[in-house]
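Re: duplicated header lines in exported structure tokens

Our pipeline writes sequence and tokens for each protein into one text file. With two proteins the header for the second block appears twice in some exports. Here is an export where it did not happen, for reference. First protein block:
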Amino acid sequence: MTDRVSYIGMDLGTFKTSIAASNGRRDVIPTAVGWPKDHVARALLGRDVVFGDEIFHKRRALEVIRPFEKGMLKYGGDPQGQAPADRIARCREAARLVVEYAVSLMRPERGVPIFGVIGAPARASIRNKQVLIEAAESTFDAVVVVSEPFTVAYGMNNLSDSIVIDIGAGTIDLCPLYGTYPADADQVTLPLGGDMIDEAFCRLLAQKHPQAQFTPQMAREIKEKHGFVHDANEHAQVLLSVNGVPTQYDVTDPLKAACSVIVEPIVEGLGRLIARLDPEYRPRMLSNIVLAGGGSQLRGLDRVLEERLEAFGGGRVRRVGDSVFAGAAGALKLAMAMPAEYWQEIRRASENREASDEGQSGTELRAAA
């Protein structure tokens, strides 16, 4: 396609959004928006909306909205039934602002069309995919929503005889790849992920060390630094306050127990997926399982899953090389590979407001991939 196009690949995650552009820029931001709580906060902050890591530094002065938290908007049969209408509207606005801010960080050339591919949970409904498109339509000239595991596989040139397990904050997606765009019925989405681990860790840590003072953000940071699931000799020692006094705690047991809550659901999901695989292809696919997403970095998860796969005849599990940008880089690669006529067709349909969500997320990709 012409160089006079800005291509964007985006992994619009529940907790973090990674983005990559054809001009070589890439970045990662929290999938959150902060609004000043009152006029005093507005005066001190000097702006109406706050993005990026500053959200966490100034969160006491902000109303912080994570638009996709607990599956809000992004996954689920009926997002309208999950919260009051005003909350849904606020989340929709936050989603739009996150996409707009993320694209602005790529500094696309002014006056040049912006075409993008956005990753979504494997089994996100048509309604949920349409929510993502609506969040992006004010920023992109044309946008396609695809399965998040597919973008990872596409970026790795691993589209045949493989299984991608994408572990995000809100969902875990299991996707078999046969050399073509995966059908919805072939994929498995589990409505749990890193957020569930964080909640379990906060609960278990408070039970074991009731005098320790910590916040959910601190618990998340401990998980990201020390999280593990295997039985090897691991020790997680951290400093937590007790009445303002820094005190060292051993959080090994509650941390391992919290991180392990996703193991059984993943194994059960794999079992359902494996049962549907063609027996002829099953051994090859089980020997080529890729862990992606932030949760893939839990130490020992690949080993534990390989042990559990012995019941299915064995398998090989490896972690993706770049858990932060694998999805965004794959989405960008896909955006740049799609033929010009498809982008123009999507653009015209968007302008006419007649595009169907299902067509945008499937038909064009089968031809492009």
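Second protein block, exported in the same file:
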Amino acid sequence: MTSLVLTPGQLPRRLEALRWTHDVRVRGVLDDGPAVAIVGARAATQLGMDRAHALAKHLARGGYRIVSGGALGIDGAAHRGALAGGGTTTVVMGSGLARPYPARHRPLFDQVLAAGGALVSMLADDVMPRPGTFVQRNPLIAALADTVIVVEADINSGSLHTARAATRLGRMLAAWPGSRGCDRLLAAGAALIEDERDAELIAAGTPRQRSAPALDPMAARVLAAMHAGAFSVDAICASTGLAVRDVLRALPSIESSFLARKQ
């Protein structure tokens, strides 16, 4: 089964609004209805996967299409939750559509199509997955959604690339506290999500508000860079001009400030 190639001018409206320039290959149905991306770690905890499944199921029942990357862990749980909620889901692959990855998710991908969802890729159909192709596809996950929720992530998780893309593209960004990557996103200003009700508020564009942290000037510079989408130490250094040691000194105070607000 060959894929349909959508070129600029044939793309969903949300991609056209971003002046998207890449071709998008699609199998199944890709619509412009309200959509929420749910992403996170491959090596996720069972609690994290349960949370992703519950959020996706709840949002799918409310009429939201669930977008994720098809990977093991949080992504797979989100797709399965959407199906359990009787909704549709979009899988944005880091491989060509004729080379679905991971192989163990082939039955899941078949279920996605049978339920009216879509498999999507920016790559030619026969391209094998490589580490760089997953980073390449992450902006498309954010672009196809109105909101991006990171459920569980370490500080080196690929889902933080999706979070940066969400910030750059003007999408709502939210994170579930408790993992280092998510706590860093929250410290940088991501919306807080801790249950299905929060998911509804975030998807509606009205997240719970938190007061800004009281930080010293150097930490405030680091936080401003994180607000702008610089989440790695190297990116923060490049944005602020600070030395690595200064950034590393500031990060714990930012994260501690966030943790104090949770208590």
